[in-house]
C-alpha cells in the first residue's frame, strides 16, 4: 500500500513527532512518503531511511491577498505528486495540511488528523477562514482522527463534523525506541546548573514558546514557590516567538538564578530522567505529548486542566470536558485551573489560578512521598499508549 503523510514542516513539534512516529512504523509494511509544505531539509526527529521525503517548496506568507495564489500552487503540486506516486491513502496533520489534503484528492482515501481543540486554537490564533476550513475538512475527508475525546466532542458540537467519521487515537510512545540524540552543549549547561544546586528540587516544562503554552504563568507562579523552596530550579525547554518576552518575565520577577530557558532539544528524555516534577501550563492543547514523555520517564506531573488532553491523561475516568475548580489530586497527576493567558511584565499579585499552580508545585516539591507515588502512577499510565496498541489502531483505520 502507498501511504502519503502530509504536514506543514518537519521541524521540532508535537504534530511533527506524532506524524513521524506513525510513518516510521507503517513504512515497515508499506511504501511511505512524508510530504512537507516547507522546511523538510532538517527534520527535528528520526526518520526511517525507508521513508521518502518530499517538499512542495511553497513559500509562507501572512498576506490574505496572496493566500489564494499560494493555495492554488500547493493544491496543483500536491495533486501532481499524488498522481505520480500513485497514492492509495493520504494522511494529513494540522489545519492547513488537512485542507489541502481534501482539496487535492485524486481518488485516494483521505484521512485528516486533528491535533488541537479547535474552538480555542482557531479562535485565539487564526482567522475566521480557518474555522471555515475546519468545517469543510470535516465534511469532505473520508475519516477524521482526533487526538483526544474532548477534541472530538468539540468537532461534533461546534464544527458539525459527522460523528460517525471521527475516531479517537491517542499519541504513542515506543518503549524500545532509543532516545533521540541530545544536544551536548545544552546538556553540559544543564549538568553545570545541577552541580551548582545539588540539593534543589528540579521542575521541567517542555513546549514551543508561543502564547498557547502559558509559560509566563509558570514563571510568575515560580516566584511564590521560591519563597518556600529558595534553591528550586525550573528548566524550560523549547523555542519560539515568545522567548524574548519570557526572558523579560524572568528578569522582572527576579528569577534569573532559578529559571532557565534551555532551547529546543530532541533528546528531552535525558533531562526528564533527572527531573523531580513535570509542569504543563498550556491554555489549550490537543493531547500533550510532553505529559506522555514525562509519564514514560516516571516523572510526576502537574498540569493545567486545559481543553484538551491533560484530563484524559491524568484523570481518565472523569468526564473529558469537566474542569478543575481548584487543585485536583487526580489518579495519575495533579490538575489545576487554566490561567488567563494575560501577558504582563509586572510583579502584580498572582492570579488565583497562578497561586493554585504554585501551591501544587510547592506541595509536590516538599512531599517526597507524593512525588514517589505519582512517579509510580506515571509509569503505569504510560502503558496505555504503547507503540503496538496505537499502531494497531492506525493500521485498522488506514486499511
Outline the structure in words.
This protein is of the alpha/beta class and 399 residues long. It folds into 2 domains: 168 residues, Glycogen Phosphorylase B (Rossmann fold, 3-Layer(aba) Sandwich); 201 residues, 3-Layer(aba) Sandwich (Rossmann fold), CATH 3.40.50.2000. It is 42% helix and 16% strand. Strand 9, helix 9 and strand 10 form a beta-alpha-beta unit. The protein is globular and about 60 Å long. The chain starts with a strand and ends with a helix. The relative contact order is 0.12.
What is the CATH-assigned architecture of the largest domain? Answer: 3-Layer(aba) Sandwich
Beta strand count: 14
Looking at CATH, which topology of the largest domain would you report?
Answer: Rossmann fold
CATH superfamily of the largest domain: Glycogen Phosphorylase B
Percent in strands: 15-25%
Helix content: 40-55%
Arithmetic mean of pLDDT: 91
Describe the global form: globular
* Poorly predicted spans: none
Rg is 21 Å
Count of structural domains: 2
Helical run tally: 15
Secondary-structure element pattern, one letter each: EHEEHEHEHHEHEHEHEHEHEHEHEEHHH
Distance between the termini: 9 Å
Biggest β-sheet description? 7 strands, parallel
* Oligomer description: single chain
Short structural summary:
This protein is α/β, with parallel strands linked by helices.
Task: List the topology elements.
Blueprint: E1 2-7, H1 14-26, E2 31-36, E3 52-55, H2 67-85, E4 89-93, H3 95-103, E5 109-114, H4 118-125, H5 128-140, E6 143-146, H6 149-159, E7 166-168, H7 184-196, E8 202-206, H8 215-228, E9 233-237, H9 243-252, E10 259-263, H10 269-272, E11 277-280, H11 289-296, E12 301-304, H12 310-314, E13 328-329, E14 334-336, H13 352-366, H14 368-382, H15 387-398
Parallel strand pairs: 1-2, 1-4, 2-3, 4-5, 5-6, 6-7, 8-9, 8-11, 9-10, 11-12, 12-14
Antiparallel strand pairs: 13-14
